[in-house]
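Input chain follows. Return structure tokens only.
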Amino acid sequence: MAPDDAAGLRGHETTDDSGVAPQPRSHRGRRYARYVVAVAVIGALAFMGADWVIGQINYVHIVDARIDGDVKTISTRLSGFVTELTVSEGDRVKRGDLLVRIDDREARLQLDELDYAAEGIDAQNAQTKARLELLDRTTVSLIAERRSDLNAARAEVAVRESRLKLARDDFARAESLKDRGVVSTQSWQTLQTAVETARQELAKARAEVETADAALVSAKTARGEIEVLRHDLVRLDALLRSTMVQRERKQIEIDDMRIVSPADAIVDKTFVSANEFVQASQRLLLLHDPGRVWIEANVKETRLRDLRLGQAVKIAVDAYPDHEFAGTLERIGDVTTSQFALLPAPNPSGNFTKVTQRVPIRVAVDQTEGLLRPGMMVELVIDVGGR
């Protein structure tokens, strides 16, 4: 074919009725593929957006939660040298196991001193009781004896008074008969002497009554010493109780110098060494109960209306990305975290920027093979769709 004919053929193209040349099939296929891809992308984005919206409605996501536990700070109530540190960091201990011992030699000597003082008070108390019982028996018999002597002396006075009366009567008759010469002077003098003798004997008997009465009073006064001894017993009893209280206080100090674990726990950190001097209230070590853990988190106040106690929580622990844990919402705080800030944020100038506040929550979770440790970061997904 001649070149001119070939050029004429290339210049002569077929057109449709509208006068527009039709597109090649390869161009139409690429344009159709682009349409399909665009529709697929838009559909995927729409699906993902719908899934995100549904997730925001039915779930509360928290990414800054932490595992918390019953971490205990063990400190000392007394000052002294650490004579024994029985644990190291990471050790597992049982309730009652010895952790730290503080030098208690001086306290034990003081305890012995109080024991000796109590024994001395007991001995003095026993001596006073024995003396009181002896004095009680002695004074009872002595008072009875002195009362008997007094009664005898009084009876003797009555006898002497009767004899004096009789002697006076005889002397009076003799006095009347003497003037008539019936009674001799010698008989009259004898009767007169008898009256004087009876008078003296009565005076003596009365003196003996006074002596017996004084002896009875003295015996009764001696019994008054019993009351003094009883007061001494009361004083000794109070002194003994005071000594026993001091002893109990000293025993408490000795017990406090032996610091034991309050529960089954793991030693997290030690702050002292053996032979180191520690002050009262000084922190000695930290430990926690590995079987009791929970999760502390903060949720936006705008999601509080969706939360209910007992809601299921999915837990993802950063340390174990392939392991999923489950928990339940256990507590919802009553105040926001800003209320616990050390530096308050007043607004005296009137400028105000509204910031969404956070409310603390607690999620209960069961320990699983000791994997959960206080301080670990976790992410929470709270199912609020069933509220």
